[in-house]
Specification:
The protein is an all-alpha fold. Helix content is 67%, strand content 0%. It has one domain.
Length: 144
């Protein structure tokens, strides 16, 4: 199944953009983390239905942080704060440039302008581009 087919399948199952990004990452790395997927639901429609910062931006940052962020407890993973900051900056710069160019801003309200139809039209492509960019960033840094 290709990326867009998987995104559409998850959309039809009712998952939001940030949850889809989390599921795609977990599929890629062969892990399960239902709590992570559930927590990403809070980023829906620009963080808690506020129509603020797009869930793909916050979700993409969370995807990168899942692999580069500060570990909890005895996770056994080395933490590199400088690398974490660098991958997040690369991503947020990319996302900001893309969304401002294509939609006029990074907020959900900028992208869908109050229309659920626009959400169905634009969001799958934004999710795919976001996921691909996250994977490219991780690959460039030898993390995938």
């Amino acid at each position: 199944m290709d990326l867009m087919d998987r995104i559409m399948e998850l959309t039809e199952q009712g998952y939001c953009c940030a949850q889809i990004l989390a599921i795609l990452l977990l599929d890629t790395i062969g892990e399960e983390d239902p709590g992570y997927v559930r927590a990403m639901d809070g980023l829906l429609y620009g963080v808690g239905y506020s129509y603020g910062c797009c869930g793909c931006m916050t979700g993409g940052a969370a995807v990168l942080s899942y692999l580069t962020g500060r570990p909890y407890g005895e996770e056994g993973r080395k933490y590199d704060a400088a690398l974490h900051k660098e991958v997040l900056k690369e991503f947020t710069d990319w996302f900001t440039d893309e969304m401002k160019r294509d939609y006029g801003g990074i907020n959900c309200s900028d992208i869908i302008r109050g229309s659920a139809a626009r959400c169905l039209e634009y969001c799958p492509g934004i999710i795919a581009a976001t996921y691909e960019e996250c994977m490219e960033i991780l690959d460039r840094h030898g993390l995938m």
